[in-house]
């Protein structure tokens, strides 16, 4: 997947957001209740503290590569997400998010597991660009990307959350 074509610009480095760049520990409580409070979970995202290791890696990567952000957050969180990235002094880059329910295509939002949705975007990016690295905390996303031939760095600098992992894989919410 690391091939470069004539139309390629700089290589791409792809970063996940939640628990890779943004510390979600303060909002895990919204996922630990039944039913899960997704509106509360995403509404609290603008208060996420940055994760120093991830932020430093984005800034370092931007010297040689185009930075792309790939998140399971729904499209309705775009404004808050862009503001958060700017507030952390992170480089501008394309942001790929999940389709909202009722989004332009109509119908239900994209609730496939993150390992499927993120791999789909990675493959699209790799059609005409070198995808140098994916940085993500989700083990299943990392494994799927490695099986597809991508180079992966596992973001293991945030506290693990069983509720978030379940949401990523079974509920397709983040």
UniProtKB/TrEMBL annotation:
Protein name per the record: Polynucleotide kinase PNKP phosphatase domain-containing protein
Domain of life: Bacteria
Residue ranges constituting the Polynucleotide kinase PNKP phosphatase domain according to the UniProt record: 12-154
């Amino acid at each position: 997947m690391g091939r470069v074509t004539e139309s390629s610009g700089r290589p791409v480095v792809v970063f996940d957001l939640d628990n890779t760049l943004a510390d979600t520990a303060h909002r895990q409580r919204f996922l630990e209740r039944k039913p899960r409070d997704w509106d509360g979970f995403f509404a609290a995202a603008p208060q996420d503290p940055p994760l120093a290791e991830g932020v430093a890696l984005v800034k370092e990567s931007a010297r040689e590569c185009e930075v792309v952000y790939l998140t399971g957050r729904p499209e309705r969180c775009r404004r808050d997400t862009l503001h958060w990235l700017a507030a952390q002094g992170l480089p501008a880059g394309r942001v790929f998010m999940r389709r909202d329910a009722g989004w332009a295509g109509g119908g239900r939002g994209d609730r496939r597991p993150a390992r499927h949705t993120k791999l789909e975007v990675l493959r699209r990016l790799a059609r005409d660009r070198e995808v140098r690295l994916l940085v993500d905390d989700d083990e299943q996303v990392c494994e799927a990307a490695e099986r597809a031939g991508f180079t992966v760095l596992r973001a293991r600098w945030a506290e693990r959350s069983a509720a978030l992992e379940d949401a990523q894989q079974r509920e397709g919410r983040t």
